[in-house]
Amino acid sequence: MRRLILTLSFATLAAAMMASASYGQGGPKGGQGMGTGPVAAACQTEIADKCAGKEHGNRAVRTCLEANRASLSDACKTALDTTGRGRNRNR
After folding, report:
1. pLDDT digit string (tens) for 28-58?
2. Cβ-Cβ contacts under 8 Å for 38 (sequence gap 6 or more)
3. In terms of pLDDT, which residue wins out, 21 or 15?
4. Which of 1, 40, 57, 61 is deepest in the core (most CB within 10 A)?
5. Which residues does 51 contact at the CB level (< 8 Å), separation at least 6?
6. CA 91 to each of CA 38, 80, 82: distance values in angstroms, whole numbers, following the listed order
7. Is the pLDDT of residue 91 over 60?
């Protein structure tokens, strides 16, 4: 019985540590939290001006930014080109 309790305690601790580490890395893919990554930081003005009301996390903001690409700042374009599915684009 003591061995069973010890085993269950260890398994619970391990599961809690894994869940905590995954949450701190933005989920299972290891990305940023929603609306806190490099695109959100570099494109803050553009998101407010052109994509207000779009939800983070379902690609709506990124899709909106891509649709308005011609009017984006260079920093925002670079963030789009070097992160997520835009990584290595234009290279």
Report:
1. 444 555 667 899 999 999 999 999 999 888 8
2. 32, 79, 82, 83
3. 15
4. 61
5. 60, 61, 64, 65, 68
6. 19, 13, 10
7. no
